[in-house]
Design goal:
Keywords: Isomerase, Magnesium, Metal-binding, Phosphoprotein. This protein is an alpha/beta fold and 498 residues long. It is built from 14 helices and 22 strands. 35% of the residues lie in helices and 20% in strands. Strands 1-5-4-2-3-6 form a six-stranded mixed sheet, with helices on both faces. Helix 13 crosses helix 14. The longest helix has 18 residues.
């Protein structure tokens, strides 16, 4: 039975269980569709492909490659890599890319993150829907014959698939390239750690791809000079079954081992990466988590200072879940800030549109203009190490100035009707707080902040994939945050009034 691809191809990427949802046939169809929708209309002659440590990766890559090469497009396979390693390859090779990973999902899952040449995003509104629809037609009907790739003489709409014709061509070729050393050198060239004070850092790779990339970037595994870092490795063995804990540092339980190890080793800080190592979480010398919003402010201020020194007007992107401290601090430093909806394809689009130097999300995705407007947890980690090592204070003191408010963290509620629950909250708060500012950029945001007391805001968003409502609350103090949090949750879960 042919799978309905809408069940595994969502707003940002492909994600499903192997092989019942994401099989070799599905990967081959997606590869063929990707070549027609993205590579050929852009005149691309090659696609770069990588995969994480999951056992299903090589087989799915092989099938995807068969689909791409059948359309006459070459494939450059870079093998094991982090997602930001794939973005680096797409950027420096100026080729569309496909990363096989399910990030932090359990071992039964795999997925594909797609990008255009130069690591430009492919999301629901930027080509992914067209890839899905064409792949579905390939799966449902007779094989689509490969088409002759033609160098375009006039611009082609990026989401317009090249339709098959009667002319066939030879299949594209495949080649293997190891780009780990070039990736490590590229990142080192963006942040200089040579002059920092010596730091001891515990790194929890979660048996994910950071076990492959950290020795190259922070150590000497790629042949680069040693840095003034004493790296204590935790779970560096690549293992897609995640035998120690899930590779999802957003869940507090998955930080417990790192927090204990930082204290045990008397380390200056700890870093935790997710499965494909594109997100980085930070804990201080006490083992206490540093919020991604604080990291966004810290890194953003460094990038803003660099822009101002160069005589440029800096812009920083942040999603609507990040702390109010982010736009407050960055605006005070001379930056223009742009608030956007949650999701890497949206952030990347805004980054490029505004030529933004940096962007951050509450989920610990960090985006850099100098990294093809793409997200890289490793580059954010280098900035944190540089900031900490460039001054004498511990990380807890350094981070304190970036966390002036109190946040709830993301709270999920399973609801039978997300729209009805959201409407209930909207109506209750409109009646109780008529002076609050309400917007629906991404879900429902209600803010009682500017020139208002008490100061608080919350955002309520429906999950794209599950019957969940996600709540984030921030306030000027703990008591206010707790009250707003509990009131909203009461409305969501039991239909009570404020």
């Amino acid at each position: 039975m042919t799978i309905d691809l809408t069940t595994i191809i969502k707003a940002y990427d492909v994600r499903g269980t192997v092989p019942d949802q994401l099989s070799g046939d599905v990967a081959r169809a997606i590869g063929a569709a990707f070549a027609r929708v993205v590579a050929l209309p852009e005149g691309a002659r090659r696609v770069v492909v990588g995969h994480d440590m999951r056992d299903s990766g090589p087989e799915l890559v092989e099938a995807f490659t068969a689909g791409v090469t059948a359309a006459g497009v070459d494939v450059v396979e870079i093998g094991l890599c982090s997602t930001d390693g794939l973005y680096h390859a797409s950027g420096v090779l100026d080729a569309p890319g496909a990363m096989f990973t399910a990030s932090h999902n359990p071992a039964a899952y795999n997925g594909i993150k797609l990008c255009r040449a130069g690591a430009r995003p492919v999301g629901q509104d930027t080509g992914l829907a067209e890839v899905r629809d064409l792949a579905q037609r390939i799966l449902d009907g007779p094989p689509v014959e490969p088409t002759t790739p033609v160098e375009p003489t006039t611009p082609v709409e990026p989401t317009t698939p090249v339709e098959p014709d009667e002319t066939t061509v030879s299949t594209g070729s495949t080649s293997d390239v190891d780009m780990l050393a070039e990736y490590a050198a590229f990142l080192r060239g963006l942040v200089d750690l040579a002059g920092i004070r010596p730091l001891k850092v515990v790194v929890d790779a979660g048996n994910g791809m950071a076990g492959h990339t950290v020795p190259a970037v922070l150590g000497t595994g790629a042949g680069l000079p040693a840095l003034p870092l004493d790296v204590v490795p935790l779970y560096f063995e690549l293992d897609g079954t995640f035998p120690n804990h899930e590779a999802n540092p957003l869940e507090p339980k998955n930080l417990e081992d790192l927090r204990a190890a930082v204290v045990e080793h008397d380390a200056d800080l700890g870093l935790a990466f997710d499965g494909d190592a594109d997100r980085c979480f930070v804990v201080d010398e006490h083992g206490d988590p540093v919020s991604p919003s604080a990291v966004t402010a810290l890194v953003g201020l460094r990038e803003v200072a660099k822009e101002l020194e160069a005589g440029r007007a800096p812009t920083v992107i942040h999603n609507l879940i990040t702390s109010r401290a982010v736009p407050d601090l960055l605006t005070a430093a001379g930056a223009t800030t742009v608030r956007t909806r949650v999701g890497h394809s949206f952030i990347k689009a805004q980054m490029a549109q505004h030529d933004a130097v940096f962007g951050g999300e509450h989920s610990a995705h960090y985006y850099f203009r100098d990294f093809f407007f793409a997200d890289t947890g490793m580059l954010a980690a280098l900035h944190v190490l540089a900031a900490l090592g460039g001054q004498p204070h511990p990380l807890s003191v350094l981070a304190e100035m970036y966390e002036p408010y109190v946040a709830s963290g993301e709270l999920n509620s399973t609801v039978p009707d997300a729209a009805a629950a959201t409407a209930r909250v909207r109506e209750a708060y409109a009646a109780a707080y008529p002076d609050a500012v309400v917007d629906e950029l991404d879900g429902l945001t209600v803010a009682h902040w500017d020139d208002a007391h008490p100061q608080w805001w919350f955002n309520l968003r429906a999950s794209n994939t599950e019957p969940l409502l996600r709540l984030n609350v921030e306030a000027a103090d703990e008591d206010i945050m707790v009250k707003v949090r509990d009131d909203v949750l009461s409305l969501v879960r039991r239909g009570e009034t404020v």
